[in-house]
Design brief:
Blueprint (H helix, E strand, L loop, with lengths): L2 H19 L4 H18 L11 H19 L5 H15 L4 H22 L5 H12 L4 H8 L3 H10 L8
Helix pairs in contact: 1-2, 2-3, 3-4, 4-5, 6-7, 6-8, 7-8
C-alpha cells in the first residue's frame, strides 16, 4: 500500500463518519467516500495551501459538501430528507456554525491521533501518557505528576519532548 493509499484510507473513515451524519444511505457511504477521495487525489497536485491553519481541512470539507449536494440532488424525490440534508450541508459550509466547528475539531483530533500513533514507538509509555494528558487533554501538571509518581517539572519536560508542534492541516 502506497503512502497516498494509506492516507486516503485514513481520511475515508473520517469522511464516511460525516456522510453518515448527513443521512446518506449506508449502502452509498463507501462509494461516496471514494468519490470524495478520488477528487482529493486528482486535485491534490493543484491544491495550494494559503498559509492559513486549516486550509486542507476546509478544502476537504468543501469537496465533501459538494459531493453531498450532488448525491441529494439526484435523490430529490424525498423532499423532507432533501431539505434536511441541504440544511446540513449549508451548516457545514458556514465556518461559524456549530456543525462546521465540530468538523474542524474532529478533523484536528483525527490528524493529531494519527501523528501520535506514528511517533508512539519513539517514546516510552510514561512520556506519551504525560504528554497526552498535558498537551491534548489539558490536565494540570500537578495532577499528572501525582498520578504518575513524578515531579510536575518532569511532566513539563515530557510535554515539550514530543514534537507535535507542527500545525494541523
Amino acid at each position: 500500500m502506497t503512502e497516498t493509499q494509506r492516507r486516503s484510507a485514513n481520511y475515508g473513515t473520517l469522511v464516511g463518519d460525516w456522510l453518515k451524519r448527513d443521512g446518506i444511505n449506508e449502502s452509498d457511504i463507501d462509494d461516496l467516500s471514494q468519490e470524495v477521495l478520488l477528487v482529493v487525489i486528482k486535485e491534490l497536485p493543484a491544491f495550494e495551501h494559503n498559509g492559513r491553519t486549516g486550509a486542507f481541512r476546509n478544502w476537504l470539507k468543501t469537496i465533501t459538501t459538494n459531493r453531498c449536494r450532488r448525491y441529494w440532488s439526484a435523490r430529490q424525490r424525498d423532499a423532507a430528507k432533501f431539505h434536511l440534508a441541504d440544511q446540513f450541508v449549508e451548516q457545514l459550509e458556514d465556518p461559524l456554525s456549530d456543525l462546521s466547528q465540530q468538523w474542524d475539531r474532529e478533523h484536528d483530533q483525527f490528524v493529531a491521533a494519527k501523528i501520535l500513533q506514528s511517533i508512539l514507538p519513539e517514546f516510552d509509555q510514561q512520556t506519551m501518557t504525560a504528554f497526552r494528558r498535558a498537551a491534548i487533554d489539558g490536565e494540570p501538571a500537578k495532577q499528572i505528576a501525582s498520578d504518575l509518581g513524578i515531579s510536575p517539572n518532569q511532566v513539563y519536560k515530557y510535554r515539550f519532548r514530543v514534537p507535535l508542534a507542527s500545525p494541523v492541516m
